[in-house]
Design goal:
Blueprint (H helix, E strand, L loop, with lengths): L1 H8 L6 H12 L5 H14 L6 H13 L4 H14 L15
């Protein structure tokens, strides 16, 4: 019964469609700097989100495939962002974390 209640409260994220495509790409990709940054960005967006359970599961799957814990992912991406601008030409000045 708890899962039925949870499913009834789940929300649809407004950026689900585009994010789903990114996650699908990450599932079959290598952990490049850009892909690590995308994984971290989406992990931050969806970890607390009450819904999009398929994206949450697939982000965890990518982390397992790449042998990353949450702490290791964030450590790597902090270093990536310190040394270079990852999102060149992709609306780099726009915050897109939530």
């Amino acid at each position: 019964m708890a899962s039925d209640t949870q499913a009834n409260k789940d929300q649809q994220h407004p950026q689900y469609r585009g994010d789903r495509q990114i996650v699908n790409s990450l599932l079959s990709s290598e952990p490049t700097d850009y892909n690590l940054a995308e994984l971290a960005r989406l992990h931050i967006r969806y970890k607390p989100f009450p819904g999009a359970r398929d994206i949450q599961r697939d982000l965890e799957k990518v982390m397992q495939q790449w042998n990353l814990s949450e702490a290791a992912l964030y450590e790597k991406t902090r270093a990536i962002h310190q040394k270079a601008q990852v999102y060149k030409g992709r609306g780099a000045k726009r915050d897109d974390w939530s």
